[in-house]
Amino acid sequence: MNYLWLAAAICSEVFATSSLKASEGFTRLLPSLSVIAGYGAAFYCLSQTLRTIPVGVAYAIWSGLGTVLIALVGVVLYRQVLDRAALLGMTLIIAGVLVMNLFSKSGAH
Questions:
Q1: Own/partner pairs for 42-51, CB < 8 Å, 24+ apart?
Q2: Which 8-state DSSP code applies to residue 57?
Q3: Count H helices, E strands: the chain?
Q4: Residue 83 sits in which domain range?
């Protein structure tokens, strides 16, 4: 259940960030309300995650996967182009999260 809360936090954050772009500086009402609701849900779900998952581990997963997912949303929704450096960076982010979770003893799972 803990990782379901984390997945919900990530999805909510990606939704909110996508809406932030669409809000055009908070000049459009519906996307602006989506930003507020999305970030509220993201932080609530993240707070539930932190009951059992160490903060460093949870935040690494949340921020890392959120970064990769929002970059992919940018490609799909906003036709942004990812160059080799961006793809390499996203690969390194995912690798870092995996190394931290699979091999690190710094946070009890």
A1: 42/9, 42/10, 42/12, 42/13, 42/16, 43/9, 45/5, 45/6, 45/8, 45/9, 45/12, 46/5, 46/6, 46/9, 48/5, 49/2, 49/3, 49/5, 49/6, 49/9, 51/2
A2: H
A3: 4, 0
A4: 2-103
Total tally of structural domains belonging to the chain = 1
pTM of the model: 0.86
Q: Is residue 53 part of a domain?
A: yes
Percentage of the chain modeled with pLDDT above 70: 96
pLDDT digits (tens, 9 = 90+) for 25-69: 999 999 999 999 999 999 999 999 999 998 988 998 999 999 999
**Quick one: 42 exposed, middle or buried, by C-beta within 10 A (0-12, 13-18, 19+)?**
buried
Q: Is residue 108 one of the residues assigned to a domain?
A: no
